[in-house]
Every structure is written in structure tokens, then in C-alpha cells.
């Protein structure tokens, strides 16, 4: 039988079918607050009621507004929340990368407020800053880990070399890169992380354009393929529809059938 859970960082056991909050923002460009705030709250709570206990967000989504809606919806609920920092979005389509120590620690402090948490379960470097060595960025996040502001450190949009360099500074609990059944270029990184017990959290699991709505791949098939592909993969499809959310959850049936056939 396929394993439904994965333990992030040896501590946080979550269902491998999670939720990505990027779409719970204004459009176009994932900029500004989600216009139907109450519906977004209802959707997130319905996800949690279904069994979703891993939610992925980021400072750049909104910016900050995705963290806020996730924090409000899940306050007092049992859920592992991940967010990302080191990227800002002052305007739609204007993405600014800043992995400096001061920026990361400032974003961590603000994310604690936005997420309504005393500790961020998983804080991920959104992308490596060309002006800041990855070791410096990871060391800054490790400071917040040492004083209890975050639980675990993750990386996003990284190469295998980036990951290896980061591992010389601190344990890395997760990697979040684009990967789906039609885009398998990160297979070596999936295998590397699986061997070392590092979660691999593929973004774009349905092949969507990050800045546009709609999936290129059939959702349940694409999700099921990822769940069956490697035991360390945590899938985070995002949707603004409760009906689609509930339909996505049924991907577990396909994944388990696929695992039995193989």
C-alpha cells in the first residue's frame, strides 16, 4: 500500500496531499488580497476538515496576504504551515529577490504575525539570491531556528549544488521545485532528497502557469502520479473551488490503485 504520510524533518508527520495557497490572492499576478475572503477561509477550513494538514504559502503571495488568510483560517486548528521568504513582489510581475540576513529575519518576524503562530513549522528560502551566497541565507534562517521562531528549514527553486552547499550549514527538511508528470527534469533531485529523507514539494503539480489560472494536466491523474512516484513527495495543488478541492482529494483512490498494480 502507498504511504499516505511523510514526516518532515523527522518531526512533522503530514498527509502527502496538501494545499498550496498561491491562488488565494488577487489577480492578475497573484497580487493583492483574495477578493472573496470569507470563501477563501471556508475553502481552507474545508481542506483541513477533509484531512489536509500541510499548507504552503509565501511572503511573495500577495505579498503577505496569502499568509494572512491561511493564518486566519487555520488559527487554533491542527495543521503544519509552511511559508517562504527571500522574494518580494512590490507590483504584479515585479519580483524582487533578496536573501540577505536582515530581510529574511524581518520576513520571518512578520510571517509569525500574519500566520498567527508562535513558531513557523517550515520556512523555505523562496529562491537563491544571486547577490547573497546560499550559505548566508541558510545561516540567517538557522538563527531563527535556533531561537525557536521556526521549526525547520527548506529551499525552493534550487539546484542540487545549491542543496549540497546549504547542507553544509544546516539540516534541510524540504526542497520545493517545479515537477509534474509532464515536466520531469528534476528527477535526480527527487531521488537525492528521497535517499536522504528530505521532503520534495513539487510546485506546478498540474502543469499550470504560475501567473494564470487553469491546469494543463488532468488534476486527479497528475496528483495521483506524483503521490505514487516517490514516498517523499508532498503534493500541494491549489484551487479556489471547494468542489475542485474535494475532487482533488479523490486522487488518493487513483494513487493507491496505481501502487497496487505495480
Can you walk through the features of this model?
The chain has 262 residues and is an alpha/beta fold. The protein is built from nine helices and eleven strands. Strand 8, helix 4 and strand 9 form a beta-alpha-beta unit.
Give a summary of the structure in a few sentences.
With 262 residues, this protein is α/β, with parallel strands linked by helices. It contains nine helices and eleven strands.
Structure class: alpha/beta
Spatial strand order of the main sheet: 3-4-5-8-9-10-11
DSSP summary: helix tally: 9
Overall form: globular
Radius of gyration: 17 Å
- In whole angstroms, the N-to-C terminal distance is 10 Å
**Strand-residue proportion:** 15-25%
Count of β-strands: 11
The average pLDDT score comes to 96
List SSEs in N-to-C order.
EEEHEHEEEHEHEHEHEHHH
| Major sheet characteristics | 7 strands, parallel
Q: What is the topology?
A:
Elements: E1 5-8, E2 12-15, E3 19-20, H1 37-50, E4 54-56, H2 65-74, E5 80-85, E6 87-91, E7 94-97, H3 101-115, E8 120-125, H4 134-146, E9 150-156, H5 160-167, E10 174-176, H6 187-195, E11 199-200, H7 219-229, H8 242-249, H9 251-261
Parallel strand pairs: 3-4, 4-5, 5-8, 8-9, 9-10, 10-11
Antiparallel strand pairs: 1-2, 6-7
Helix pairs in contact: 1-2, 1-8, 2-3, 3-4, 7-9
Amino acid at each position: 500500500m502507498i504511504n499516505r504520510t511523510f514526516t518532515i524533518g523527522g518531526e512533522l508527520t503530514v498527509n502527502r496531499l496538501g494545499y498550496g495557497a498561491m491562488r488565494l490572492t488577487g489577480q492578475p499576478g497573484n497580487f493583492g488580497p483574495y477578493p472573496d475572503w470569507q470563501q477563501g477561509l471556508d475553502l481552507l477550513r474545508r481542506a483541513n476538515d477533509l484531512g489536509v494538514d500541510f499548507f504552503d504559502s509565501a511572503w511573495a503571495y500577495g505579498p503577505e496576504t496569502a499568509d494572512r488568510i491561511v493564518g486566519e483560517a487555520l488559527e487554533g486548528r491542527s495543521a503544519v504551515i509552511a511559508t517562504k521568504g527571500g522574494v518580494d513582489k512590490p507590483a504584479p510581475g515585479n519580483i524582487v529577490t533578496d536573501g540577505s540576513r536582515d530581510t529574511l529575519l524581518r520576513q520571518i518576524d512578520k510571517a509569525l504575525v500574519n500566520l498567527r503562530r508562535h513558531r513557523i513549522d517550515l520556512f523555505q528560502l523562496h529562491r537563491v539570491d544571486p547577490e547573497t551566497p546560499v550559505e548566508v541565507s541558510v545561516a540567517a534562517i538557522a538563527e531563527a531556528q535556533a531561537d525557536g521562531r521556526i521549526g525547520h528549514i527548506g529551499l525552493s527553486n534550487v539546484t542540487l549544488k545549491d542543496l549540497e552547499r546549504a547542507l553544509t550549514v544546516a539540516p534541510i527538511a524540504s526542497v520545493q521545485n517545479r515537477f509534474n508528470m509532464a515536466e520531469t527534469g528534476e528527477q535526480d533531485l527527487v531521488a537525492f532528497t528521497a535517499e536522504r529523507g528530505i521532503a520534495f514539494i513539487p510546485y506546478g503539480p498540474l502543469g499550470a502557469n504560475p501567473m494564470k489560472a487553469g491546469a494543463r494536466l488532468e488534476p486527479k491523474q497528475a496528483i495521483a502520479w506524483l503521490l505514487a512516484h516517490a514516498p517523499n513527495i508532498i503534493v500541494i495543488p491549489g484551487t479556489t473551488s471547494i468542489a475542485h478541492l474535494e475532487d482533488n482529494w479523490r486522487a488518493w483512490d487513483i494513487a493507491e490503485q496505481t501502487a497496487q498494480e505495480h
